[in-house]
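User: Okay, second chain of the day. Same drill as before: sequence in, structure tokens out.
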Amino acid sequence: MCGIFGTINYRISEEKALDCLNRMIHRGPDGYGIWQEDGVTLGHRRLSILDLSENGRQPMSYADGRYEITFNGEVYNFIEIRRELMSKGYTFKSDTDTEVIIAAFIEWGEKCLDMFNGMWTFAIWDRLEKKMFISRDRFGIKPLYIANQGGRIAFASEMKAIMPLLDKTDINRSLIERYLKNPHYEMQDECLVEEIKRFPAGFCAWIDASGNIEMKRWWNTLDHLVDVHAAFEDQVEKFRELFLDSCRIRMRSDVTLGTALSGGLDSSATICAMAHIMNGADNDRVNNDWQHAFVATFAGTPFDETRYARQVTDHLGINSTFLNIDESVSYDELLNKTYLFEDLWVNTQIPMMKIYEQERKYGTLVSLDGHGADELYCGYNFDALRALPDAHFKMHDVDNIIRAYVDQLSDKEADVNSSEFKKKRNRIYVDNLIHYYGRRILGKPAVDSSYTGHPAWKELDNLNKALFVSTHETVLPTLLRNYDRDSMAASVEIRMPFMDYRLVQYAFSIGWKSKLHDGYTKSIIRDAMAPFMPKDIAYRRTKVGFNAPINNWMKTCYREMFADIMNSADFMNCDLIDNPAQVKADFEKVLNDDSVSFSFACYHVWNKLQLFLWEQAFIKEKGRR
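Assistant: Same drill. Structure tokens below.
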């Protein structure tokens, strides 16, 4: 994993290219490379993961120098593709996936993308044809931004690397206004800087020497749904097979592996799968130094899951590193982290950044984490309610759906035969059906999506439609962006086994019952991984989520800093905030009213405060180090 940068039809000096690259030094602290020719620049900041020798340096050339590539990410099945290419006569000088990508592109053209299992953005310049091929992975796990100034093209892994080349820099105030109403803007091409656009997930492009761009969508999950077994037990077996293989190929690394462990189902399933895999034999390029679990603790808050994480590490017999995140960072460090994050989100990313800093500190450079499972396999209880129309008035199925919803909120399992449960069930069921059928009567779709015109959309049940939107259009794209920033700020690579494209295909090919079987959320994951995990963790119903306890922090470790910021003239004069005085009043409410919710602190205080921090840190570059 690295940071990439490039220009087409845009002559810049090597010094200017290095300035752009070095704004992403956190993405690649192990070295850099720049290649330039005839108005084309390719740049690379290296985080060494595979083939740590100089053979792995980028930009990398191939075919007697005809092709040059800069690449960020991993193609996990590169060993299998390399073997196939070698059988066709291709030779390789390195042990990297980078060289395999170029050879695969030469052999299969655009179709090579269908063969790759991984996360990536890359650009290949053909010196003979004078054109560039750019690709981003299926789900946008790796970021890519692009600016087009009258045919002068610049692209990079982060916006900050493009900004020195912009003729002007305008804040996208319209996007900020929309963000404050709906924080999920990651799947839009618009960015917080108007002159920069987001290169879309699942797309590729050809760009010629004059800067003409031809965009093409190469991946749509709805085009790749698969046939599945009818029996739930058979589906569980298939999921287990896919998930274990996904973890196996993501353990291919020449540096130390670990995981950010919460004690929840997803991260616990991941590290338990890693342990199971290492009990096997003959694992190609799998690193056996994996027994490193890092746990963020929030003592005295509802977000602390220390006891669950310890249960998992005790089960596996491995050590764990616990990081108690209860101290504020300095104002300068807060600005720096805001600069590194460079986007907006409704809660501070400090805990996430801190956990990956800890991994880096202890020598773990690759973290296999559980992100994506909630959106794909129904981990949020509010999503479970979207299955109520799918129950078709079968009360046994309705009870299972409501159980999945209510049990996530309490340690006590619901008694479906109790009058209390039935009363709650009836109220929730009626309210949701009124909403569902009300939309149908009005001629509105039950689930809004840009995919409704696809022939396969109507084949999805209501729950899967809702999860498809969360996965491809709203929640997950935002989380993928956040975790890329959080980990790369510490020069750590995250790998996500649940985001293997085979598991994403599978998730939308099985029906809703396989995700809420027996009244459990993510039931297929639980049943598939229970043989390798503590049973209490596999079938734990409650869910916490990895969030900063921002309302607690406002009253304690960040109280003085936030108060100083809001009392400053710069804050009161920040024109990105509609009413700074109201934000200050809302902050006082958080301090003095114990009934104020976590959500209020996020949306009414932090969300406005960060606009000021973002402008100071990113636009005015006060957060750059």
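The first strand starts at residue 2 and ends at 8.

User: Thanks, on to the next one.
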